[in-house]
Design a protein that fits this description.
By secondary structure, this protein is an alpha+beta fold. The chain has 2 domains: 2-109, Sufe protein. Chain: A (Alpha-Beta Complex); 149-278 and 313-366, NADH Oxidase, CATH 3.40.109.10. 28% of the residues lie in helices and 16% in strands. The longest helix has 22 residues, at 39-60. The protein starts with a strand and ends in a 28-residue tail after the last strand.
Length: 387
């Protein structure tokens, strides 16, 4: 998030407009000040700009870089033409557009975010996502290393995704292309910064500007560790439909890729971690001296143990305030030949797979801040043609 301020002569003295820009260089907020404007005319006009006109103007221009927005189209307030014109001029100056006040910060930002212009999600004529913009974004290797550094995520609560944004992002993640209708993935969101630090303290990436999402999958654990009964092959298919399958992990991965794309449409980045500071039964069995607390030997790293009880995530399997256990929707199950689905207990059936940290980064530094381990292109050549 970056702020730019412009000033212009109003009815009294200068009127000031501050424009806030998100990490993708897109206008996100506007605020006007004019303490010396006449209270009954200019003062009331500024109040209307802040409460009504600016929010609508920002919504209309979220497809464009802030420096390309036409601020002369900001609606005027009837009876306050001098203040209205000053508002428009001050906003344009803040964006470095007029009066030769080439804001060096603005110019620098514009140069650095040129490559982002093709990454910004655009809606073209109401027909949906720009395929060209999506293609260019997916080709950009800056995505590989963004948020790789230990201090990459921005600090400050204002940089953390809101609950409403998270609801939309996680809903979008659920639109992955499932294979066997397993409805495998489940997410548990942790917003408390201290709790996030406890979970990933060895990584040092969380803060008040991030959220940590525990990624779980159903259909992974062996029957002895899974409360719900899997389909018995001797049972007629139309009576039960609860499978145990490796596709469950694959689908959790697909959902994670969708979550990444969804997060980007909201201006956020993610990084995935498998080193989680939770008691791990499988670690204690293999390394008794650790007492089950060794992030580098976690159960997720061993296929044998991922089918059993590994990380103890019981604390996070229920609502922090009420203690009510979380439920997971399972699509399978038939009644009178129709698939009905049902709710199952998260703690007694699902397996913790990894943790995803989400937050904002300095997008203008996404390339220069890339991890050296991701600068090669060999990984992009991992494909073959059989014919």
């Amino acid at each position: 998030m970056a702020d730019f301020v412009g000033k212009a002569k109003g009815m009294g003295e200068d009127v000031e407009v501050k424009i806030s820009v998100n990490g993708a260089g897109v206008l996100s907020k506007m605020v006007a000040k004019g303490p010396n404007e006449t209270p009954k005319v200019g003062g009331k006009a500024i109040e209307k700009f802040n409460k009504e006109i600016f929010p609508k103007f920002v919504d209309k221009n979220m497809e464009y870089s802030f420096s390309e927005v036409d601020y002369s189209k900001i609606d005027a307030v009837t009876g306050a033409s001098l203040t209205s014109n000053a508002i428009r001029k001050a906003a344009a100056i803040a964006a470095g557009q007029k009066d030769g006040s080439a804001n060096s910060e603005v110019d620098n930002l514009n140069k650095k975010v040129n490559y982002l212009n093709q990454q910004v999600t655009k809606i073209e004529d109401g027909k949906g996502l720009s395929r060209y913009a999506l293609k260019e974004w997916l080709k950009d290797r800056g995505n590989v290393a963004a948020a790789a550094g230990a201090s990459a995520f921005l600090k400050g609560k204002e940089n953390a995704p809101t609950k409403e944004e998270l609801k939309e992002i996680l809903f979008m993640a659920g639109n992955y292309t499932w294979c066997h209708e397993l409805t495998s993935p489940h997410y548990i969101v942790i917003r408390d910064s201290k709790e996030q630090a406890n979970l990933l303290h060895d990584m040092g990436v969380t803060g008040d500007g991030t959220v940590t999402i525990l990624v779980l999958a159903d259909n992974v654990k062996a029957q002895d560790y899974h409360q719900e009964k899997y389909t018995d092959h001797d049972t007629p298919f139309d009576q039960e439909h609860y499978w145990r399958s490796p596709y469950a992990l694959y689908e959790a991965g697909e959902a994670g890729a969708m979550l990444n794309l969804a997060a980007r449409t909201h201006g956020y980045r993610i990084r995935t971690f498998g080193a989680i500071d939770l008691y791990d039964k499988s670690v204690e069995e293999r390394y008794p001296e650790t007492k089950g607390m060794d992030v580098w030997h976690g159960g997720s790293a061993y296929w044998k143990y991922i089918q059993e009880d590994t990380w103890d995530f019981d604390k996070y399997s229920k609502d922090k305030e009420t203690g009510k256990p979380f439920k997971h929707y399972f699509l399978g199950g038939f009644t009178n030949g129709k698939m009905t689905g049902r709710m199952v207990d998260v703690a007694k059936n699902l397996q913790l797979v990894c943790a995803i940290v989400m937050g904002k980064i300095d997008e203008t530094d996404a390339v220069t801040g890339a991890s050296a381990s991701t600068t090669g292109y060999e990984q992009n050549q991992n494909f073959s043609f059989w014919d």
